[in-house]
Amino acid sequence: MRIGDYVTMDRTLERVGDGYVGKAMDDRIGVFVMLEALRAMERHEATIHAAATSQEEVGLRGATASGSALEPTVVVALDITIAMDIPGGGGENTITELGKGAAIKIMDSSLICNPKLIEHFRQIAEREGISHQMEILPQGGTDAGGVQRLHGGIPSITLSIPCRYVHTPNEMVNASDVQACIDLLARYLEEAHTGDYTL
Ligand SMILES: [Zn+2]
């Protein structure tokens, strides 16, 4: 063992009731949602770049590098968010709850999402009957914040998967929330080319 060596928790993925528990749901579940949405998507006109980034937790670095290279016209980040439906939560501290659907982010400490993009996601969820909740996260950021301010500003949003026990080896997500995120992203990608997010 030398200074600088990587270590990791030895932890398997478990199905627990309606959910999945494992390490690094943040952000393996985001990659899963991305891949499954691409599989589920039907006709689309937008050019889609799917990027799995590194070093989000230490300063949104991979997202900034990817966004700088790809020059996207719209950014949708995928990340977990805090489900505070546990002791200590309640009221304004709840943020999101497991089993209440895909979380459409309004803001976190890294970005304020483009309001027209928020509205587009919300309209699709309502029209398609996809279970969803609106998310305001007082602390913590996502990759969208790393790309939003590049190239003169890019309309950005984050679609979040509610997660309990964030940043522990027992991160827990709900299977129906994961499916709601896949459905919402797939439907968005099919009509992403119709969006006008100019403010
Ligand atoms: Zn995290």
Overview of the structural elements:
This protein has 199 residues and is α/β, with parallel strands linked by helices. It is 32% helix and 19% strand. It has helices spanning 25-40, 61-70, 115-128, 143-148, 175-191; strands spanning 14-16, 19-22, 75-82, 102-107, 132-136, 156-163, 171-174. The strands form two sheets. Strands 3-6-4-5 form a four-stranded mixed sheet. A three-stranded antiparallel sheet has the order 1-2-7. The structure holds zinc ion.
List the helices and strands and how they pair.
Elements: E1 14-16, E2 19-22, H1 25-40, H2 61-70, E3 75-82, E4 102-107, H3 115-128, E5 132-136, H4 143-148, E6 156-163, E7 171-174, H5 175-191
Parallel strand pairs: 3-6, 4-5
Antiparallel strand pairs: 1-2, 2-7, 4-6
Helix pairs in contact: 1-5
The structure holds zinc ion.
